[in-house]
Amino acid sequence: MLRPKIPTMPTPTGLGSPPVVIEPTTVSPNVGTSPIAPTTPTPSRPTLQLTPGTALALVGGGTAVVLVLGAVLVSLLLAVAITGVSVAVCAVVLRSLLASETKRR
Length: 105
Description:
Blueprint: H1 52-104
């Protein structure tokens, strides 16, 4: 009853560009070069020298980042706690309102 229709692949109409003829090249030996002198390898990474001021700045920056992240996380936790308490208070008030309404009947 419900059968998917699979599209047929269109047939190519012709070549997009004519074929290119590749001509072979000749390899000539390089005779006139002198031997390469050995060179000292350069380090791939430059060395980093920390001065006492730089180390102090890094420690201060890391401390500032930790304090800011801690303050943000504590404020988020406090927001979740306040929201949970307010929802609980609303639930208690609604429960007492509904219970007092059923007692009057």
